[in-house]
Amino acid sequence: MAANYPVKNVEMGSRLREIREYLGDTQTTFAARFGRNRHDVANYERGRTDLPSSVIGVLDKLGFNITWLVTGEGYLLKMDDLLSRFKTLSNEFEKLSVDYRMEYDDLLRALAKAEHKRDSQGRS
Questions:
Q1: Could you give the maximum distance between any two Cα atoms of the chain, in Å?
Q2: The whole model's pTM is what?
């Protein structure tokens, strides 16, 4: 006979699984983040056990949206964190773009010099 668990817990457990998968963790590695074991995580994800506040606190510190976890409203990650990560990534992208452009230009100049040198040696 299957036990009936509160829908709220099952839905929150499903969202917790989304967080775990977002992190690329197995139940075992995810549990280790919180000092728990795989069995605990399996019970949270199935809605069998309430999610402890200590786990919720760690998820909050990792940048996950606790309102989304509990209610399903909003986004998986906090918007401020998403925007901050986007800004950091954009800045890094700009640096890489400049670096790649400079390297590309340097390479073109070196190839042009080598081509010119080869042509002048070939003609002599």
A1: 94
A2: 0.63
Q: d(Cα 39, Cα 41) in Å, to the nearest integer?
A: 5
Q: In this structure, what token pair is assigned to residue 102?
A: 């400079």
Separation CA 98–CA 52 (nearest Å): 47
Query: Quick check: 20 and 41 in contact, CB under 8 A?
Result: yes
Would you say how long the chain is, in residues? Answer: 124
Summarize pLDDT for 5-48 with one digit per residue, the tens: 556 789 999 999 999 999 999 999 999 999 999 999 999 999 99
What torsion do the CA atoms of 97, 98, 101, 106 make, to the nearest 10 degrees?
-140
pLDDT band at residue 1 using 50, 70 and 90 as cut-offs: very low
What CA dihedral angle connects 10, 13, 18 and 20, to 10 degrees?
Answer: -160
| Two tokens, residue 123 | 């003609």
Per residue in 69-86, pLDDT tens?
999 999 998 888 778 878
